[in-house]
Write a structure and sequence with these properties.
The protein has twelve helices and three strands; from the N terminus they run E-E-E-H-H-H-H-H-H-H-H-H-H-H-H. It is mainly alpha-helical and 256 residues long.
């Protein structure tokens, strides 16, 4: 087998018997006890330590994403833990696997849309909303079944980004997206937490392809909390029992 023309390179980290280097920084001397988790996440993704403002904003995003009560993700984690209590990581993974277009994963698609529309919001926002509406589609990051007329998390994140002095390019696009969407769909459609996170991460400079990762990182902590609570105040068996009691059986109708 022919050797590769160049040696593959990775820049994440390496170890020697007495030293661990992470993204060019000595883990023990420069990072442990000196940077918070948000700054560490930023370093891992970007390759440099954040400014004070960037660290505050990233920590705020992770806090925002950590918890939202009993959702499909936390129920999946609790049920999986009920079935396999010896594997906490499996229960966390089960909750994270549901990070899709309805919960958590919308951050990625919303960031992609915002970054695309930011090139010419004056003409492209309305065209995008009208095309999505005509296709009976949903606009990622817009609308919420509970938080109306406004999602309180959005106001907090946008206000923090304003105070920290970040450019507002994508926050402005998100606001315009909401305005046009409410007009076209004829209902209240607030910028939800996914949309707010997508906007502030985009304004920091993160490419849309990595934005879902912040939901995964933040929600992991929340799911560990749910699983630990499940060990002390179990509800998974109750959820299972309710399902058994309320779902009726019917003979199937053949698909073909």
């Amino acid at each position: 087998m022919k050797a590769p023309a160049t040696t593959p390179v990775q820049t994440m980290g390496h170890s020697t018997p007495d030293r661990i280097v992470v993204r060019g920084h000595d883990l023990c001397e420069e990072l442990i006890g000196k940077v918070d988790f948000g700054a560490m996440v930023f370093l891992e993704i970007v390759g440099r330590l954040p400014s004070e403002e960037e660290a505050v904003m990233v920590n705020a995003v992770l806090v925002t994403m950590a918890e939202h009560g009993v959702t499909a993700n936390s129920i999946a984690a609790r049920l999986t833990h009920h079935a396999a209590p010896e594997a906490l990581q499996g229960a966390v993974a089960a909750g994270l696997l549901g990070a899709g277009s309805t919960f958590l994963g919308a951050i990625e698609e919303c960031a992609r849309v915002l970054q695309d529309l930011a090139a010419d919001p004056a003409t492209r926002v309305r065209a995008y909303v009208e095309a999505t509406h005509a296709a009976n589609g949903r606009i990622p990051g817009i609308g919420h079944p509970v938080h109306k007329p406004d999602d309180p998390r959005t106001a907090k994140l946008f206000g923090l980004a304003d105070r920290l002095g970040f450019p507002d390019t994508h926050r402005v696009v998100a606001a315009e997206l909401r305005r046009v969407a409410e007009e076209v769909y004829d209902r209240v459609l607030p910028v939800n937490a996914d949309g707010a996170v997508a906007a502030v991460l985009s304004d920091i400079g993160f490419p849309w392809e990595v934005c879902r990762g912040f939901a995964v990182i933040g929600r992991s902590g929340g799911l560990v909390g749910h699983i630990w609570e499940e060990t002390r105040r179990p509800v998974a068996r109750h959820i299972w029992s309710i399902t058994e009691e309320t779902l009726e059986y019917a003979d199937p109708e053949p698909l073909f």
